[in-house]
Write a structure and sequence with these properties.
alpha+beta; Translation Initiation Factor IF3; 4 strands
Length: about 80
């Protein structure tokens, strides 16, 4: 996957991963991909809901030894 920017949101509690994601997505162009690393378990539901409500696409997510990784394509 061609990632444009990586956001480290590890150790941040809700709502900070979403706040940081919103800022980072504003720094890339439409169609580009933002990779997000978080440790807050709530980020799974939060990011899915946020991408749906903002017109971005959650391409995939995975749990890598407790680090949640997300790939979001800017709408």
């Amino acid at each position: 996957m061609n990632v444009t920017k990586v956001l480290d949101a590890k150790g941040l509690a809700c709502p900070m991963p979403i706040v940081k994601t919103k800022k980072a997505i504003g720094e890339i162009e439409s169609g580009q991909v933002l990779e997000i690393h978080a440790t807050d378990k709530g980020a799974v539901k939060d990011l899915a809901a946020w991408t749906e409500s903002t017109g971005h696409e959650l391409l995939k997510h995975e749990d890598d030894n407790g680090v949640l990784k997300f790939w979001v394509q800017k709408g």
